[in-house]
């Protein structure tokens, strides 16, 4: 990966809403070259999407999220990918990862109530033949998400002018 | 001269008297604390003065900050805390802990610098102390110290405090602030005793390419100059690797290299720097250091060792982020019609505002910009006469603030 592409990705990770003009300024590329680079990154699957990071506590909206640990037992006909495809189909799933360690899948789910989450676990995950155990952890507070701290961020205590 | 020697002394000496504030400078005001002549002759920092104005406003976006907006990496902070928990609160050796000096010696090999940690490295209380020690150790009263201008605000006062005579050497926007041998001859540096080099440069961001450095090194050898090379921004070099004048043939034996942890590791408040040079140079500086500082802060030395051991990735991340902002700021300034040389290092851009400033006065421009739009940028004159017509913009601040500051600057200019 060349330096400009790396800078482009850094910029998008920091703020996916950057305008093409600002991306051009930060990378030193022409705007047309930025468009081309983005198209190539999307085409290759390196850039999978652009989403918002929302602090739901700031909105007048019920939002429940949980991390569900899922243990599975595989057989000759079923592998991890098969189970993952089945779980990922649910709209409630924000992220799904195969893990090393005490459990197999970490499923980040969200819904508008605890009922939504528990229905997802009891009706869509637990009944799968390969699943042997689930443990659900409700998220109580979010402090940081995808690199963004959920604080006011306005704590620059440096002097306003220094050498 | 002590206050007691002065006639008509009185006791309300707490009021600061400065030349710019209109106070007497000759020590005849009767104050018991009338400063020594070499102190009275130095004007207060133009940065400090501007800071006091900026502090009166609470909606300021400050582009006047000469320090990273990151926090020191956690391994460094953790090592500092750990050292305190273990009760390591004693002095260290005057020259700094042996472990840290060894780590510094190892680190600077990336700039092709080879120094013996036992005899050729001195750990100081910030690079600022190292600069002061170099002047006090090697400048005799009346010696001429050449200072390329614009440059860091502390050199000229430091030279004066040491009894030397500063000799400005003008570098030019048109040359991308390069230090040329023509400029050195024009200023009479061939007759000077010491040359101070600050590359990457504060406030212009200028670096030296290999041929410029070769030419300056040739000049220094030819005219037998001692060189103080302040390389505090070495790790924040964007295009190519940092090069030190001390690596040029015949230069190591006439150069004191200064570096530190403030800028690369975002450790400004921990005050840790170092000086490197031949044993006789470091001996002389150590002599002053041991009678004044005794040793650099022990806690900070533990943090610095961890920084060298475990924070390379953090430095790389911060450098990449500065680089991204650098491109953005330079691009926006040029779009706004403010000519600016491409900064090759540090985290400053130094655009020319003379064409749009009242009477070409950068100070008035900066004051008006602060007043009208709440954007603080430091007038170039704070960095010497060579900074006239320019302002220093620090991009050691988040991109969101930089964008807002540039939008305000655009409004101000329209």
From TrEMBL, chain A:
SUPFAM superfamilies attached to this UniProt entry: Dimeric alpha+beta barrel (SSF54909), Winged helix' DNA-binding domain (SSF46785)
Stored InterPro entries: AsnC-type_HTH_dom (IPR000485), Dimeric_a/b-barrel (IPR011008), HTH-Siroheme_Decarb (IPR050684), Tscrpt_reg_AsnC-like (IPR019888), Tscrpt_reg_AsnC/Lrp_C (IPR019887), WH-like_DNA-bd_sf (IPR036388), WH_DNA-bd_sf (IPR036390)
One function term, GO molecular function aspect: DNA binding
Annotated keywords: DNA-binding, Transcription, Transcription regulation
Stretches assigned to the HTH asnC-type domain: 1-62
Name of protein: Lrp/AsnC family transcriptional regulator
TrEMBL record, chain B:
Protein origin, superkingdom: Archaea
Documented EC number(s): 2.6.1.-
Pfam families: Aminotran_1_2
Coiled-coil ranges per UniProt: none
Region (Disordered): 1-34
Gene Ontology terms for molecular function: transaminase activity
Cofactor(s) needed: pyridoxal 5'-phosphate
Residue ranges occupied by any Aminotransferase class I/classII large domain in the UniProt entry: 59-408
Keywords, ordered alphabetically: Aminotransferase, Pyridoxal phosphate, Transferase
SUPFAM superfamilies tied to this protein: PLP-dependent transferases
Biased composition (Basic and acidic residues): 1-13
Subunit text: Homodimer.
Protein family per UniProt: Belongs to the class-I pyridoxal-phosphate-dependent aminotransferase family.
PANTHER family: ASPARTATE AMINOTRANSFERASE, ASPARTATE AMINOTRANSFERASE-RELATED
Name of the protein in its database record: Aminotransferase
């Amino acid at each position: 990966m060349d330096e400009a592409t790396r800078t482009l990705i850094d910029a998008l990770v920091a703020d996916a809403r950057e305008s093409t003009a600002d991306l051009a300024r930060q990378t030193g590329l022409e705007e047309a070259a930025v468009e081309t680079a983005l198209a190539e990154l999307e085409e290759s699957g390196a850039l999978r999407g652009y989403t918002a990071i929302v602090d739901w506590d700031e909105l007048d909206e019920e939002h429940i999220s949980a991390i569900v640990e899922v243990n599975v037992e595989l057989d000759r006909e079923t592998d991890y990918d098969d189970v993952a495809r089945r779980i990922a189909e649910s709209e409630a799933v924000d992220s799904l990862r195969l893990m090393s360690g005490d459990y197999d899948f970490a499923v980040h789910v969200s819904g508008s109530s605890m009922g939504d989450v528990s229905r997802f676990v009891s009706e869509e995950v637990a009944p799968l033949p390969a699943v042997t155990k689930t443990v659900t952890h409700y998220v109580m507070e979010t402090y940081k998400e995808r690199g963004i701290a959920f604080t006011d961020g306005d704590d620059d205590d440096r002097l306003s002018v220094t050498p | 001269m002590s206050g007691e020697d002065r006639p008509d002394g009185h006791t309300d000496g707490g009021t600061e008297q400065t030349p710019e504030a209109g106070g007497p400078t000759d020590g005849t005001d009767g104050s018991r604390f009338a400063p020594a002549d070499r102190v009275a002759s130095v004007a207060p920092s133009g940065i400090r003065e501007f800071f006091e104005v900026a502090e009166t406003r609470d909606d300021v976006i400050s582009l006047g900050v000469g320090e990273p907006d990151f926090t020191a990496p956690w391994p460094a902070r953790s090592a500092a805390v750990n050292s305190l928990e273990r009760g390591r609160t004693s002095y260290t050796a005057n020259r700094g802990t042996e472990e840290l000096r060894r780590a510094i010696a190892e680190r600077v090999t990336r700039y092709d610098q080879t120094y013996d940690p036992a005899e050729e490295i001195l750990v100081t209380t910030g690079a600022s102390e190292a600069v002061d020690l170099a002047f006090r150790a090697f400048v005799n009263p009346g010696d001429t110290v050449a200072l390329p201008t614009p440059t860091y605000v502390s050199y000229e006062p430091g030279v004066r405090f040491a009894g030397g005579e500063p000799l400005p050497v003008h570098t030019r926007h048109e040359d991308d602030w390069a230090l040329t041998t023509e400029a050195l001859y024009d200023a009479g540096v061939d007759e000077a005793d010491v040359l101070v080099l600050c590359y990457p440069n504060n406030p212009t961001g200028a670096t030296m390419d290999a041929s410029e450095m070769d030419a300056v090194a040739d000049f220094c050898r030819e005219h037998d100059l001692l060189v103080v090379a302040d390389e505090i921004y070495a790790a924040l070099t964007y295009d190519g690797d940092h090069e030190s004048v001390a690596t040029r043939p015949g230069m190591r034996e006439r150069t004191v290299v200064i570096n530190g942890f403030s800028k690369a590791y975002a450790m400004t408040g921990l005050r840790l720097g170092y000086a490197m040079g031949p044993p006789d140079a470091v001996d002389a500086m150590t002599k002053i250091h041991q009678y004044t500082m005794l040793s650099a802060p022990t806690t900070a030395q533990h943090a610095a060792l961890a920084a060298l051991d475990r924070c390379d990735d953090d430095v790389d991340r911060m450098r990449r982020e500065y680089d991204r902002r650098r491109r953005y700021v330079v691009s926006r300034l040029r779009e706004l019609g403010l000519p600016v040389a491409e900064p090759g290092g540090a985290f400053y851009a130094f655009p020319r505002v003379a064409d749009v400033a009242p009477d070409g006065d950068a100070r008035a421009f900066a004051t008006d910009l602060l007043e009208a739009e709440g954007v603080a940028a430091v007038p170039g004159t704070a960095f010497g006469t060579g900074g006239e017509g320019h302002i220093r913009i620090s991009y050691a601040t988040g991109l969101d603030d930089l964008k807002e500051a540039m939008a305000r600057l655009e409004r101000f200019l329209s």
